[in-house]
Description:
Chain A contains 3 helices and 8 strands. Chain A is α+β, with helices and mostly antiparallel strands and 140 residues long. Chain A has one domain (4-133): Pnp Oxidase, Chain A.
Amino acid sequence: MSQNDAFSAIDRQDCLRLLAKVPVGRVVYTRHALPAVLPINFSLDTDSSVLLRTSPDSDLVRAIDGVVVAFEADEFDAATRSGWSVVVTGRATVVTDPAEHDRLRETGPTSWMPQRETVFVRIASEMVTGRELRGTPGPL
Amino acid sequence: MSQNDAFSAIDRQDCLRLLAKVPVGRVVYTRHALPAVLPINFSLDTDSSVLLRTSPDSDLVRAIDGVVVAFEADEFDAATRSGWSVVVTGRATVVTDPAEHDRLRETGPTSWMPQRETVFVRIASEMVTGRELRGTPGPL
Lengths: 140, 140
């Protein structure tokens, strides 16, 4: 399942359609010079950027504001050995415009974690790639 | 769901127990100086290292052999807004010892992708961290 050429590629529009189906993805970044990954709720904005909702004093915000990150979501089914994964790569920026912040409080992602204060982080969908695994028969 | 302090931490033994429940995780690394993430089948070895099975000529092997990577697995339930995630951070190395390779062909991970040739990659479980989200009531 790791050979890129054994997946079939998913085009950008289908990638975005699949992303919209799932409530949790994973932001991939660097923390203290080590690779880091954190599951997080998200939604897609009207321009197809990925929106995260978190706490303004979180380690995540400090680590990713202004930095190129990857954001991954997937769904796999062990019974059929099939599934898909999508990766969005782009610059993450904290939303600082008050009107934009207010708009996202209404229309942006919710979080499964209660937050005293909220900040939104936008990941530009500069590069969107996806792979589909159609399933292989039985155990090897 | 992104505030580290709002999760409860999972100890190393429980992290390894949870990892053993799922067939797919995500290897997190750097490719062409950008953050990269790839879903992949895995298993745990007897020493609790993470074992991947892939093709010897894959981009992944070239990118991670000898490098510190992160490996993440999780399970979330949208209905209860609960779940867990575990991250193993450590050096990835291709298994080159023929006896070890033969042992892993018998006891190591299988892959959902057919592979003409197989190489095993071991990620040392130098740092194992996990977080559990117990669920929050209804939509915010």
